[in-house]
Amino acid sequence: MFSLSHSVALTLISTGLCCTAADLRTFRVCADPNNLPFSNEAGQGLENKLAQIVAHDLSVNLQYVWFAERRGFLRHSLDVGLCDAVLGVPIDVEGALVTRPYYRSTYVTVTKPELKIASLYDSRLRNLRIGLHMIGDDYVPPGHLLAAEGLAGQIVGYSLYGAYGQADPPARLIDAVANGQVDVAIVWGPFGGYFAKKASIPLAVEPVSPTRFRMVPFTYSIGVAVRKGDVALQSAIQQVLDKECPAVRALLKEYAFPSPEEEEATPCGTSSLAVISSH
Amino acid sequence: MNVNLTVGCGLLFAFGATAADQLPRQKIQDEPDDGQWTMPAKNYSSTRFSTLTDINTGTVKNLKLAWTFSTGLTRGHEAAPLVVNNTMYIVTPWPNILFALDLTKPGAPVKWTYKPKPSASSQGVACCDVVNRGAAYFDGKIYYNTLDLHSVAIDAATGREVWNTALGDINKGESMTMAPIVAKGVVVVGNSGGEFGVRGWMAGLDAKNGKILWRAYATGPDKDVLIGPNFHPFYAADRSPDLGTKTWAGEAWKIGGGSGWSWISYDPELDLIYYGTSNPGPWNADQRPGDNKWTCTIFARRPESGEAVWAYQINPHDDHDYDGVNENILLDLTINGRPRKVLVHPDRNARMYVIDRATGEVISAETYAYQNTSEGVDLKTGRIKINAAKATGLKTVKDICPAPPGGKDWQPSAFSPRTGWLYVPHNNLCYEAQSVEANYIAGTPYVGQNVRMYAGPGGNRGEFSAWDPVAAKTVWSVKENFPAWSGAVVTAGDVVFYGTMDGWFRALDAKTGAKLWEFKVGSGIISQPVTYKGPDGKQYVAVLSGVGGWAGAIVAGMLNAADGTGALGFLNAMSDLPNYTTKGGMLYVFALP
Questions:
Q1: pTM, full prediction
Q2: Confidence category of residue B121, pLDDT binned at 50, 70, 90
């Protein structure tokens, strides 16, 4: 299956035939069934909506392959042909072919409004409980800076996978800010923006500065991943993303995905997103 | 009948080498061996030594395939078959089916099958490690663990479930893959999942009803670790109160790892169980300043209460994923003219620890595989001397040996009292730690450590060695192309068996390492061979084939060989394995004609 679709795509290109993925009848998307604001089984996530747009514009049926997005997710799903695409993937990830970014976001701090912290060098952090997601047994990127600053002892780890039996496990970290278990959460922007908006009390969301620590970036460019070599599908999805840029922007606003502070959103119709996304 | 079988292994052999033989042959004072195999390590001392002699250095060349059995599953098969009352019991990888095969009938047909009902979790929740290392027999029941954290007791005669105890929730990243041991009527089991940020534990269950009697965490305050007034570690560094919290920054101990996913041994005379804990989390050691106790630690505990009697931390502040979970073989040796009750522990850090099992004192810790991460162990303080040049972090560090799977991983060694040597299946792998690559999980971009593993000096990725624990040196060694990822079994016929990842099941001369016999099985071997006496009085040798696990993930998990960082960097070292073997679980049983 995998090698077959591979060779079809390559044949189309090498013979100069059109590459609109017109032979694609069903658009199979691997997605996590329990991971808002990105996706869930009820179709409530931003990536659910985006997948619908792509399927609609390509005139194909959208089919989900539900798969918990844990370590090895791309290898066990996209790589082995379970699905054709995965949405919401950093553009420079190894092991997949990714479109140009449809958004950029940043790690953010989430606090009660009276605290409001933007700099990871803010001296107040020394006396605060800092909540951080753990991805497997790795802290998210700002953890490297905090450790180097001698703040490892302030960190309280929250599993990104969490208790998968509950809805949206990553939200526990933002809950922890609201209920005072931690003073500040340093979290990937889409989680911070979306869940802060839904929280029971007002919460402040601030993009972190600096934007990187040594070679570890805190801002990332996000695109749609297809299997390596599936250039035809990548190109077809890219055309949809370009055409639907205003709709995608509206979704990002609706879901409150924060942008990196220093960056102006590029107007739709230009392709300079690709330029600013390199890091 | 089986309790008595295993009691007294602590007195495995005494002194008295015979001049008639060049080898330091020891008089055997093992318990009578009735030819059964009731626990994965054969006995409480974990020697994997059988007194059967029909298959020996003279006859093994005639060994022929007797019968086979397919498990119908394709993930990694790591278990040891058990043989009790003319029945063979096999535990499969997930979904953890238990097969009972009737050895009294031609072809050993299935007597009954027990299928646990693993909780329905989404695809991918336990994506990485679905192996099972086997069961234990005690008092008419088969005890084992399911991937989704249930311990079960199954009536050995009928296959009826006697009890079923849930010990955790797989949706929180924990799982269970280890084989229990039953000591003093207590079933001792531990969790897996260090790479998911879990907090490790070992628990004791009442063998009669499955009631949880105790649970000892590897991190946290003394009361959680079951450290009390009777805790007397040998080294001063291990003696202060609450080291399970004080050797961590803040609350990091709550997600600090230290799971007990591998072997447990038992000394009935000292009434102590022994096991090691896994590595600490997070992986980046800069983020967890301190010694991170009690990860990478050997514990001695009372089986009935779980109370800790001593502990020794092998790798404080572990930097290389050197879990301390490898087997502890309990031997009585004469070292420097003095009889010592020891445990021998081939650690992931490539050092062979010989430790006084009554006190926790390290007697020696020489290297059995190539390594450059440590310079020795200070026998006064017990502390390992780390080579700081190989410390990882936010930088690229090249040529670190051994790689995270260690000088050896969980694949258990065997010990022959006839030669006095340990038979050690092991690895020869090094790695490069690269600190940055954009990565992605659950919609969240991050940067992880990239690990690329490759063969160590010599180019062979594995080795099978005989090790003299008294002289603390290798006696002979056989190179293997792939990591030697199966367990070993050695017999009084002076034959040692093991399997290779490319599918060869081999018999070597225990004295010389000469290859005496081999058979090519269908899929690579990463399990534990056993030998037993059949109802017909003949000696049989049995082994599960079915490549997979961490090392074999490239075959069983169908991973992409082009991405060397897969399976935590192991793929880079294993990219050619699919050229040598394919997946598929099958039991092979051999006998003399």
A1: 0.89
A2: low
Write the DSSP string, A198-219: HSSS--EEEE-BSSEETTEESE
The helix, strand and coil proportions of chain A, stated in percent and rounded to the nearest 5, come to: 35, 25, 40
Active-site option among B2, B43, B279, B349? B279
Which residues 185-214 on chain A approach chain B with CB closer than 8 angstroms?
188, 190-191, 214
User: In this predicted structure, which of B13-17, B447-451, B528-532 has the lowest mean pLDDT?
Assistant: B13-17
pLDDT tens digits, B240-268: 999 999 999 999 999 899 999 999 999 99
Contact status, residue B427 vs residue B343, Cβ threshold 8 Å? no
Q: Measured between CB atoms, does A75 come within 8 Å of chain B?
A: yes
DSSP SS3 for B441: strand
CA pair distance B407, B195, nearest whole angstrom: 20
β pairing state of A155-159 and A130-135: parallel
pLDDT of residue B31: 55
**B304 catalytically annotated:** no
Give me the pLDDT at residue B586, please: 98
Residues A145-163, buried b or exposed e (16+ Cβ, 10 A)?
A: bbbeeebbbbbbbbbbbbe
CA distance A276 to A266: 9
* Residue B279 reports pLDDT greater than 90: yes
Model pLDDT, residue B10: 32
Under the banding of pLDDT at 50, 70 and 90, the label for residue B23 is: very low
Contact of A76 with chain B, judged by CB distance below 8 Å, is answered with yes
Max intra-chain CA distance, chain B: 69
B contact residues 288-307, partner A, Cβ 8 Å cutoff: 288-289
Rounded distance, CA A265 to CA A273, Å?
A: 8
Percent of chain A topping pLDDT 90: 71
Asked if A209 and A186 count as a contact pair (C-beta separation under 8 A), the reply is: no
Contact B519, B505 (CB under 8 A): yes
d(C-alpha B101, C-alpha B143), whole Å = 16
CB contact under 8 A, B249 and A79: no
Q: How far apart are CA B246 and CA B469, in angstroms?
A: 35
The shortest C-alpha distance from A236 to chain B (Å) reads 22
Q: What residues pair up with B515 in beta bridges, in sequence order? A: B508
| Mutation target vs A (from B122, B127, B248, B444; most A CBs, 10 A cutoff) | B444
What does the alpha-carbon distance between residue A235 and residue A230 come to, in Å, rounded to a whole number?
9
CA angle B171, B173, B175 (to 5 degrees): 95
Furthest C-alpha separation in chain A: 64
- Say yes or no for a CB contact (<8 Å) between B169 and A163: yes
Q: Answer yes or no: B279 catalytic.
A: yes
The whole-number average pLDDT for the span B560-570 is 70
Backbone dihedral angles phi then psi of residue A224, each to the nearest 5 degrees? -105, 130
Output the CA angle B277-B342-B338, nearest 5 degrees: 155
* pLDDT (average), residues A176-192: 97
Residue B546 CA: distances (Å) to CA of B201, B463, B526: 29, 20, 7
Give the whole-angstrom CA distance, residue A168 versus residue A171: 6
Q: What's residue A277's pLDDT? A: 38
Q: Distance of alpha carbon A243 from its chain centroid, rounded?
A: 21
In angstroms, the Cα distances linking B292 to A63, A149, B21, B387 are 46, 19, 48, 18
d(CA B532, CA B538): 8
B559 pLDDT band (50/70/90 cuts)? low
Size of interface A-B (CB pairs under 8 A): 200
Question: Confidence band (pLDDT; 50, 70, 90) for B129?
Answer: low
Q: Share the mean pLDDT of chain B.
A: 90
The arithmetic mean of pLDDT across residues A173-185, rounded, is 97
**Given an 8 Å threshold on Cβ–Cβ distance, is A143 in contact with B443?**
no
